[in-house]
Write a structure and sequence with these properties.
The protein is mainly alpha-helical and 176 residues long. It is built from 6 helices and 2 strands. The chain folds into 2 domains: 1-36, no CATH class; 40-161, no CATH class. It is 57% helix and 3% strand. The longest helix has 33 residues, at 38-70.
Length: 176
């Protein structure tokens, strides 16, 4: 639009050329086009994939450890060597350890592009899934006060998930 007194920038900001006849009500701000760019959509997809990977590997890994530990002999009943060998021979324990390795690597990877104050709260939904899995697979009784706490955690997850993953601008790590 030539002659338009309002100039729009890619970030959604606008600047106004001085014209005496321009009224403030004539200024319209276009939606942020960067938020719908393929790069940002890919970034959101990457965030979602890693959040799901982190949450599922953490919850299922801990569930496997819980199931495996239920099949272990008492710690004080056997020798430490026998106990250690029993740990290594338990497929549930080994599967849980493997999934928790996936969880740790995934979470460390996510820290490279997202703030700690974003990653930990959005992946806290693992607490909800852990409680549900524990109730059905480990037959644990979950009190009302624990469910209330889990509900509050879930509310926090919703709040934090609406914020951007990174709050500070990225710097060139290789620059000296």
């Amino acid at each position: 639009m030539q002659g338009d007194p309002v100039r729009f920038h890619g970030s959604g900001d606008c600047s106004v050329r001085e014209e005496p006849s321009l009224r403030l009500t004539q200024i319209k701000q276009l939606p942020n086009r960067e938020a719908r760019s393929p790069a940002s959509m890919g970034s959101k997809l990457k965030n979602r994939i890693f959040i799901v990977l982190i949450v599922l590997s953490n919850t299922v890994g801990n569930l496997f450890l819980g199931i495996g530990m239920a099949h272990m002999p008492g710690f004080l009943v056997v020798t430490p060597i026998h106990y250690f060998v029993s740990l290594l021979a338990n497929a549930w324990i080994l599967g849980g350890i493997g999934l928790l390795i996936v969880w740790m690597v995934s979470q460390l990877s996510m820290f490279t592009w997202a703030d700690l104050t974003y990653v930990l709260p959005v992946t806290a939904s693992a607490y909800v899934i852990t409680a549900i899995l524990s109730k059905f697979f480990l037959h644990e009784e979950i009190s009302v006060s624990r469910w209330i706490g889990i509900g509050l955690i879930s509310l926090g997850v919703v709040f934090v998930s609406e914020t951007p993953p990174r709050t500070k601008p990225e710097t060139d790590a290789g620059a000296a």
